[in-house]
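Lab notebook, bench 4. We co-purified these components, and the gel suggests they stay together. Before we commit to crystallization screens, I want a quick structural picture of the whole thing.
Request: model the full complex, all chains together.
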Amino acid sequence: MMRINQILPSEITPQYTWGRRKFILQMSVGLGLALPNSARSAGDNKTSLEKLEFIKNKAYSTTESTTEFKSATSYNNFYEFGTDKSDPIKYSRNLVTKPWSVNVHGEVLAPKRFDLDELTRIAPIEERIYRLRCVEGWSMVIPWMGFPLSKLLKLVKPTANAKYVEFTTLYRPSQMRGQKTSVLDWPYIEGLRIDEAVHPLTILGLGMYGSVLPNQNGAPIRVIVPWKYGFKSAKSIVSIKLTETQPQTTWMVASPKEYGFYSNVNPGVRHPRWSQAKERRIGEFRKRDTLIFNGYGEYVADLYSGLDLKKYF
Amino acid sequence: MKHNILLFWGCFLPLIYLIGRLIFDGLSANPIEDITHATGWWALVFLLLTLSVTPIRVLFGKNSVLRYRRTLGLFSFFYASLHFLTWLVLDQFFDWKAMLEDVIERPYITVGFVALVLMSLLAITSIYRLRRYMGNAVWLKLHRLVYLILILVLLHFFWLVKKDVTEPLLFILISGILLGYRVDRWVRTQLTRTQSFSEK
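Here is the predicted assembly.
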């Protein structure tokens, strides 16, 4: 089943340029203007990333066209490197991700510290092309490489008390300059209910676009929960702890009225300061409607039957 | 006059730079957001420059700077208009329903919108003929709205930021100095007035 990814990085760059031109063109049309075309091709920094072997998981992948690699790696929210979306690519270069291990502990019978090599061998690496919706109102479509989180959790044998899963991002201010400021409480904590965590859509991501994760996207390992706002998908994880009580997640602590524990994508529940009804897909000109559970309702809506989504936002 | 012409063209530099970034791939993956932020940022900077004219005139005794105030104020309005048009055309693409909802329900948009409406009043009445028609006293009173506009614009900025309020706080600090200067001057005039009254 395993096969080598056949998409070469060189095939991505022209696509980016094309998308960029298309965007400027769309905008020119929208404005009734004719703007000179940008002839500059985008620099490709993807070649330096190690390739990953993976199998395509078509059942869980969207067929929508994917966001350009350059956009997905240069427009990021990763406050550990700064609050501007251009900060992560600029300041994450010196993050050391080797060696790396993830401590899986808490309400489990067999706690274990996994090093990265072990993690990559837990299950076959799948490609999952997921929509990503940021709480700020923009979205992307990203081909992730990873495996279901449930496969890892099974290995540590959760106890009956394990009701939640808490993820902790690396705390290393010497390499993460944003952690020298107090804009958020460090380290970054995110969490899921156990049924959300073992849901087949929830994956541990090791790569994107056929290669290992760039630092600015949460190298070397992160979680991806496609039906929730992007900040729920914790990056550069060092600890996965199973708990009996609901974790105190970073954004919830920072602003409890604005960011709930669930943070499911929901066009019907507005952020106190802005609407969530629409989103701008990066690379597109017109906004599109945001879908409930980011379009994954058929898979995840049952998880929340009987739950008041306005109260538990 | 020569200096004013130089200033006039200089005030277009931020726009030229922005267009350059757009054409030569210098914007982020979300160019509409960049354009919105850049035009809004410059509207506020020009507003603060406008309000710096009087303190500079008094503190440095340079009466000649007064003639730049109108140009700077109008450019603040110019960038605020671009900011508004970016929202109207690029961001919302004439989605009137969504925009009306925004103006009514989102406080940061409400205050921004009110600031723009007030600013356009000041811009229109900067036409010399209208100013003469209004009379100086009324005109001056109307143009004191600039202080309210500044406060609304600062709220607009402060409320829209997700978490990192460093930059809006910096602008609030600068504004505090510029407004504080005026409060100080006003208090002093009041004091001298009472003094001169009691002396009589």
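The mean pLDDT of chain B is 92. Worth comparing against the SEC data before the next meeting. Chain B is about 85% helix and 0% strand.
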